[in-house]
Amino acid sequence: MKLKNAFGLKHFIIVLLLLAGSCKDKSIKTNEVPHEIKLEHAKELSVEQPGDIKTPEGMVWVSGVRFTQGALEGDASALPREKPEHPVAVDGFFIDKTEVTNAQFKAFTEASGYITVAERPVDWEEMKKDLPPATPKPADSMLQPGSLIFNRKAEGVTDLRNYAQWWEWKSGANWKHPQGPESTIEG
């Protein structure tokens, strides 16, 4: 991804640091499995919809399943966090038949007063709790609400591990303006 200036690069780095700091369980090394998962001794999965529970309107039942997740050892394209392959069990659950529409989400935000993270003012004091100690505060002009957006101009992909080619930080991007302040969800 070509970043037009250092302003965009700094935003991108801040977001990556936040994501890395908040999503990683620091007690587990990337290729280490904390304990053997014994699925044969796990509780029974909810495969069939319980007979005493009526399907909520607009939803469907998804059966529970056991499967193997992760990359095979020796898969050169796999990222370290995708290994080792391991057994997984997911209980059955209800899910909406369709995605939440923009109109439905707008009704929710108006009724509840909810403000998405991408719309909230950036609180440096809160943000720095998730950053390495002594991380310098960026200029206030950089601490603006926004979101990562998909880079539709990615060309010549040479390294699938390079996240920077797929995403770019855009101040003012949120659910109402998915590609930045100049965009809209109209239509």
Question: How would you summarize what this structure contains?
Answer:
Helix content is 18%, strand content 15%. By secondary structure, it is an alpha+beta fold.
Would you count the extended β strands for me? Answer: 6
Mean pLDDT: 81
Distance between the termini: 29 Å
**Strand content of the residues, in percent?**
5-15%
Question: Which features does this protein show?
Answer:
disordered N terminus; 2 domains; two-stranded antiparallel sheet; 18% helix; two-stranded antiparallel ribbon; 187 residues; alpha+beta; 3 helices
Structure description:
By secondary structure, the chain is an alpha+beta fold. It has 2 domains: 118 residues, no CATH class; 68 residues, no CATH class. Helices cover 18% and strands 15% of the residues. The protein has 3 helices and 6 strands; from the N terminus they run αββββααββ. The protein is extended and about 55 Å long. The two termini are 29 Å apart. The N terminus is likely disordered.
